[in-house]
Amino acid sequence: MAISNPYQKYQQNSIVTASPEQLTLMLYDGAIKFMNMAKLYMEEKNIQETHNSIMRAQDIINELNITLNMNYGISKNLRSLYTYILEKLIDANLKKDYSILDEVISLVEDLRDTWKEAMQKNRIESVQENSQVRI
Prior knowledge:
Blueprint: H1 6-16, H2 20-43, H3 47-66, H4 74-95, H5 98-131
Helix pairs in contact: 2-3, 2-5, 3-4, 4-5
């Protein structure tokens, strides 16, 4: 099926051409977006769309969890955090609890911001290494 919407084409292209680091950032952003949508649907008392949005956020967090490279020490901590987030999302979905979503959004925003900082630091270090004169 061909994509006719220019925005969808752009979005699809940005996903296909993204680095693994950028994809991780996109996943964090997507999870945050769906959790915020769930809050809006909760306010509207739209149970089905609240559920759907939380499920999409869960799918994203689960993807982040299962793709962790466990060769790095931090991965064990991230796995525990992702498991906690998934449990809280299930709880928020069952109880339709706005405050639980706020807590989880804050956690994922912190993860996203930290990831973004690490990407920027890595990019700066790469540029510095490549610009050094080699004798």
